[in-house]
Design brief:
Layout (H helix, E strand, L loop, with lengths): L4 E4 L8 E7 L6 H9 L6 E8 L5 H9 L5 E6 L5 H9 L6 E4 L10 H11 L5 E2 L3 E4 L3 E4 L5 H8 L11 E3 H6 L8
Parallel strand pairs: 2-3, 2-5, 3-4
Antiparallel strand pairs: 1-4, 5-9, 6-9, 7-8
Helix pairs in contact: 1-2
């Protein structure tokens, strides 16, 4: 995979959390999405942003939004490869033990990472942690997912109960079980 552009404004110290945000033509949502990451109360993060061949104004918006940020790695490709390939590629640049997902149309609550990291530190047996979400389109819709491991496993056979863009996962687990690149 070739990189058309790379801007690395990360500090040298290893962060606790790497946030992966890939986008493709999200000029209407990317600025607010990234701003919600920069406003996080949990500060020990790096944000890895990947332009997956965007052809709209998204790249310009991202470059302007990250201009004075120092915890960001911005990668740009001229070719659209799809989300799974993009995520596996970004994972190679991640330096943290925890990996968070954040989509280009997501707005994360300012305490999202603080709560998730604290929970994972207290519950070392948990390797993947997702959350409930509020889906905003024409109307707000609260989506509640099961909390117990037993309930999650039972429902997964017929329903996706893990909201991908709310997930934090241990890097070791994700490195051993990469995204299936057959899914675009």
């Amino acid at each position: 995979m070739s990189i058309a552009k790379k801007v690395d404004r990360r500090t040298k110290s290893k962060p606790e959390l790497s946030v992966l945000c890939s986008y493709y033509n999200n000029m209407n949502t990317i600025k607010n999405s990234l701003e919600s990451l920069f406003k996080q109360s949990f500060k020990n993060i790096e944000i890895i942003i990947y332009s997956d061949g965007s052809s709209d104004l998204s790249d310009r918006i991202v470059e302007k939004t990250i201009k004075k940020k120092n915890n960001v790695l911005f990668l740009k490709s001229n070719k659209n490869l799809g989300l799974t390939k993009s995520l596996n590629f970004m994972l190679k640049f991640s330096r943290a033990n925890y990996i968070a997902r954040h989509d280009a149309d997501d707005i994360s609550n300012k305490d999202r990472f603080k709560h998730q990291i604290n929970f994972l530190k207290k519950n070392k047996h948990i390797q993947v942690l997702g959350t409930n979400v509020i889906h905003k389109s024409n109307k707000k819709k609260y989506i509640q997912v099961p909390e117990k491991n037993f309930d999650i496993k039972n429902k997964l056979s017929y329903q996706n109960v893990i909201i991908h863009s709310s997930v934090i996962i241990l890097k070791d687990l994700l490195t051993k079980n990469k995204y299936d690149e057959n899914f675009p």
